[in-house]
Amino acid sequence: MKFICFALSVLFLTGLASTVKAQDYYASQRNNWLAKAENAKPRLNETIKRPTVLVNLIADKASFQGWKAVIATPVDTLYQRSFRKQNGIVVDFGEHVTGYVSFKLATSAGTADAPLRFKLTFGEVPSELATPFDPYSGGLSRAWLQDEVVDVMDVPATVTIARRLAFRYVKIELLGSSQNFDFKMVDISCKAVTSATEKPVELAAATPQQFKDIDRVGLNTLRECMQTVYEDGPKRDRRLWIGDLYLESLANNYSFKSYELTKRCLYLLAGLSGENGYLIGTVFENPEPHPQAGQYLMDYALLYNVALKEYLSATKDEQTANDLWPVAKRQLDIINSYVQANGLMNYEKANKEWWLFFDWKDGLDKQAALQGLAIYTLKQTYELAKALNKETELKEVPSLIKKMSAAGLKNLFNKQTGMFESGTSKQISYASQIWMVIAGVTSKQESQKALLTIRETKNALYPGAPYLYHYYVQALIDAGMNTQAKETVSNYWGGMIQKGADTFWEVYDPNNEFLSPYNFFPVNSYCHAWSCTPVYFIRKYPEIFQTALLNR
Amino acid sequence: MKFICFALSVLFLTGLASTVKAQDYYASQRNNWLAKAENAKPRLNETIKRPTVLVNLIADKASFQGWKAVIATPVDTLYQRSFRKQNGIVVDFGEHVTGYVSFKLATSAGTADAPLRFKLTFGEVPSELATPFDPYSGGLSRAWLQDEVVDVMDVPATVTIARRLAFRYVKIELLGSSQNFDFKMVDISCKAVTSATEKPVELAAATPQQFKDIDRVGLNTLRECMQTVYEDGPKRDRRLWIGDLYLESLANNYSFKSYELTKRCLYLLAGLSGENGYLIGTVFENPEPHPQAGQYLMDYALLYNVALKEYLSATKDEQTANDLWPVAKRQLDIINSYVQANGLMNYEKANKEWWLFFDWKDGLDKQAALQGLAIYTLKQTYELAKALNKETELKEVPSLIKKMSAAGLKNLFNKQTGMFESGTSKQISYASQIWMVIAGVTSKQESQKALLTIRETKNALYPGAPYLYHYYVQALIDAGMNTQAKETVSNYWGGMIQKGADTFWEVYDPNNEFLSPYNFFPVNSYCHAWSCTPVYFIRKYPEIFQTALLNR
Question: Is B391 exposed, middle or buried (0-12, 13-18, 19+ CB in 10 A)?
């Protein structure tokens, strides 16, 4: 086995022949990896949750997306009175829950002589319940929106919605009933599910309340996304993406420590990689494990290596790391395929042949970010190799890192401004500074200057989503800018909490609450894995986040 | 046991004391009767049915309710092409089916990365698919309408609609999908259920084709309504009503011969009767057997006795008949409670204290019909008593029949016109003639005159629904008017077939196709038990219906 791996490692780095061999190797391993993924599949922990209050939805320009939920009465007022007189009520579970919703119906007058028809709308945030879904203008499937029409043929009844739901609020409307009887809706509940079981350690008492709050909301976010894979969001898209896996596993390493889940995901992705051995950005568990065919997402494929390295570092599970090492090594061939004689990644070609993500931000030029991420991946994979005593398999990597770093500095760094520029338009963006800083291409001083200067640069493209904000905070810390890192977490994630977040959102632009990559903000996910990473920062860097805030 | 029954039989006929005793007796027997009902519960026979063609719905003033379904292509054209390109298609099962619908979804391009959302609308007749249901104006629950909204979280998938459906046509609309994949809908099927198992004997070859057709549609109607009770309609209300039971069991006696089903229903009604021992017009099986509290429907309670007599006559099952005899005898107390010294039923009081149904016909005065039905019930119950050698328990009945018949003739019969008149307005209706003829109050000659004269009477209230048309045909046969009976079946039920009926309808007024007792014609039932009785007439009276039609 070891011999094969070594033999492959050479072949992987050499054009066509390596692709053929990789195909053979993957074909032989795929079922093993999938079997190991299945073995590591966690049991879901079930908890019954119940709403505690009814709320009124109030239009309010000062509230997030224009709506707030104001506590009206205890939920018992719902259960005790005829439902007919309360048509359209909204119950509040008081927290984000992911699971299976049930309710009971009891006749309160007359005999039920006809079915009842309900519409239940589940919202993670108040605006989802107040914004009409139809006619639907979103770019994603309308079916992601969580409004369910349910016919109940007999009363009394216990009704369970088959679909798993993710929500805090439920609006319940009566669409059909008989005049010959009245009824009550009682005991609404949700069998909440998560594979997170361990209770994370408490933060140091001295931790500022705001960071305690941010940590709590981050843990909630992560817990909700931890199912039988690391999901990106329990409402949408409910599946494993490499980028989300990476960030979730970072946070998990410092909180729930569900390492089996990380292991499962690493194996699942390996088992479902493309025929050429390149990883596919996202995979599905149901009805049986399968990849999103052709979904080659370069930055995510590369980050798999970093996730594997972090997994090994947290668990010392060398068996898994060795087992998956050929996968990590194969991903380096992506870099080899696009790096040019001058040390720069062929951005134009890569952009044509792969999806380069990096952020939800219209018009973002990703040349510099890609260069940075490629260098970072090489470095991290080399660290992984060293931990496994396999650095001899990556003999060419150290020189490649040097060459690519130098090329990045020479071609993308503007010494006069102190900032990186991307693409033919020499675009100035946070993404470019962030990834070149994380790549360690610049000195600490240069990194600080780049990250400080861009804050003063008008029209610089700032991050569009929490995903890139994560790397921003990491870059700030890497550059020794602890205060700014702290401020960013405080302002950005703290900002979501100020606006009512129970879980952190997929998309949050403080300047545009209605921003949606899908052209319809209610279809955004408001509990999204990649937003949970303050948990990681606050717990990994206690000296930064768990000490009193300086006066600013 | 026998002694108790006898003792009760005396008490039943004497006011308050009898009520108290009846309560005791029923309390002791109710669980026995319910247990016997449960024991007689039939297994459902399952058959997989599939649509054969796609149809186009065409607005057409000449078609029933303005819509016709025109065959477009074989159903394979649906299965072979992308569903997306066929959104809104209508499949045709070619016959009325009652059961559980499934379909399969298969990805045809790309990878399913989002749920699908469908709306499926099930129609017994084409107009149900072409008439918007909302905003809903009907008097019954909107939930009876069979439009189901279904979210399918993963593809490929086999989807089964939980609700039992009754339909011939299905319109399928796609409400949500992802642009990243395409799919096909394949293998739509319905697990059709019925408790009718025996194959009725074939009609004599010489039977005119029209009566063969009417018999076939009647059998379909009955078969669809025969579930674990005789339902009134498999789409709506899906439950046991005494009036429907009576007519269905008549047709069953001459066709499927599922006598256990009749027995089950007779016991179920007995077990769920009111505390006073009076039968309740309708009962439910789910979630557990229970009556529609307070639904006292006088004509139906009385017809139970006739149904029991017919059951005994068809089966010779004296054990059941003896067991339920106290129930039948108790129903006679209803008549005793309302018959006045002059021999007339106290219509005003009865109409206040009970629901008197007889027909869906606005403004119908039911005094004469009630008098007729009361007399008929006394006669039939006396026949039942004789068959059980219990006529001594009904000593007062023969004289009561005479007295009430005489009172009917004296007070309600207009000798000059030869017709019965009802109520203070002396209303002329088919219902009055029909029930007084069936009661045998008039001579054959008088009966014929009444039934002939009303046909020539302008503004006479004619029957509103097939239920009363059944009694009309029976009255015609009783009066020896075979040709007219034949014509009525041919014109009325044959008329439905000419308008496209696969099963006979709950409501059919040849002069108003949109008539609905519920203010919205799509909520009418188009497969309704009480319309199936041509099966009974055609098979019981072969000399009338199974011989060549005379030239008319």
Answer: middle
